[in-house]
Design brief:
Elements: E1 3-13, H1 20-28, E2 35-42, H2 48-54, H3 56-62, E3 65-71, H4 76-84, E4 89-93, E5 100-101, H5 105-115, E6 121-129, H6 151-155, E7 166-169, H7 170-176, H8 190-200, E8 205-214, H9 227-248, H10 253-273, H11 277-290, H12 294-320
Parallel strand pairs: 1-2, 1-4, 2-3, 6-8
Antiparallel strand pairs: 4-7, 5-8, 6-7
């Protein structure tokens, strides 16, 4: 079942008692009238569920749908899958539990998709703020906001994956995931949600800052990892990208090579950070063979320069004759 005009907002949360209230208030403060909020508690051990329950009447009074799903602790992608089972809206968003939506965030994105029927998704821009409400420094790169084919830009970190900025049409999303389940990994969730969709569809950008990202030291994404944790995280991401490539049906030589280069570049960064010279050398050789190393780019540029000089010399000789 899909309800026309309804926006389904799925938010996973784990031990979010400090900040979940601000996200709840920002949803209640939306200017768009048709919203269902689905909060999936990923096995919290603090007062998160109690706070969620305390908002139930407020959402009912606002005329918004409101559901709380409780699940044993696993990870964000598993929690999102619990929420996807309940989605009935025409549009889908999945903001983080410690961030906030600006009042017109949902309305402006819905209006855009209604006015531009050729698109199946849209995104806005984010801003960053700290716990005192001050604007914090930049986080993810924005990239070229005019581009609409952004699969590789997202994967390679050229543009942002910031979840609360994106809005997808559910009909197309569930055509990609007919079982209503994204791949479950201890990493990602936004790659799983976005990349298969972005491989098929163009995504324009409303160049307005309509989503606030909270910057705080306890954020899961900012936690300092041990070397082994970081290595495991890198491996999970590689396995995830391979699965996403299969979901997308990526078979072309160029696109496969680009994915391989993404893996090699990340491996080289990890090896350099931890002083693993042999692993860094292997990754560098692989990038050279893929045509993505600085040395190879320099060699190609040098060859082009030499060829240009040769052509200019030949041209001057012809003039003299």
């Amino acid at each position: 079942m899909r309800i026309s005009g309804l926006v389904s907002c799925v938010t996973p949360v784990f031990n979010g008692e400090k900040y979940i209230g601000a996200m709840l208030d920002s949803i209640l403060g939306q200017t768009y009238p048709y919203v269902e909020a689905i909060f999936v508690d990923d096995g919290s051990t603090d007062n998160t569920v109690r706070i969620l329950e305390s908002y139930r009447e407020k959402f009912i009074e606002r005329g918004y749908g409101y559901q709380i799903v409780r699940a044993p602790h696993r990870n964000a992608s598993a929690a999102i899958n619990r929420g996807l089972d309940l989605v009935v809206g025409e549009y889908l968003i999945w903001p983080d539990s410690d961030d906030i939506l600006e009042p017109d965030s949902i309305k402006k994105r819905v209006d855009f998709l209604r006015e531009h029927g050729e698109y199946r998704c849209v995104r806005s821009i984010m801003y960053y703020f700290d716990n005192e409400g001050h604007i914090a420094g930049a986080g993810e790169r924005l990239g070229d906001l005019r581009k609409e084919r952004i699969f590789f830009d997202i994967m390679e970190g050229i543009t942002y994956v910031c979840c609360g900025c994106y809005m997808l049409k559910t009909e197309e999303f569930f055509a990609i995931y007919p079982e209503r389940r994204i791949p479950e990994y201890p990493v990602g969730q936004n790659f799983q949600m976005l990349l298969p969709f972005m491989y098929q569809y163009k995504c324009p950008t409303i160049q307005e800052r309509m989503y606030g990202v909270r910057v705080h030291k306890n954020s899961h994404s900012r936690r300092v990892l041990s070397q082994e944790e970081e290595k495991l995280r890198f491996r999970y991401f590689e396995e995830l990208i391979d699965e996403i490539a299969e979901i997308c049906g990526i078979h072309s030589f160029y696109e496969r090579r680009r994915i391989i280069c993404w893996k090699l570049y990340r491996r080289r960064v990890f090896a350099r950070k931890h002083g693993k010279r042999f692993e860094m050398a292997k990754a560098s050789v692989g990038l050279f063979l893929c045509g993505r190393s600085r040395l190879q780019r320099w060699a190609v540029q040098s060859i082009i320069h030499i060829l240009k000089l040769g052509m200019e010399n030949e041209y001057e000789k012809n003039l003299q004759i």
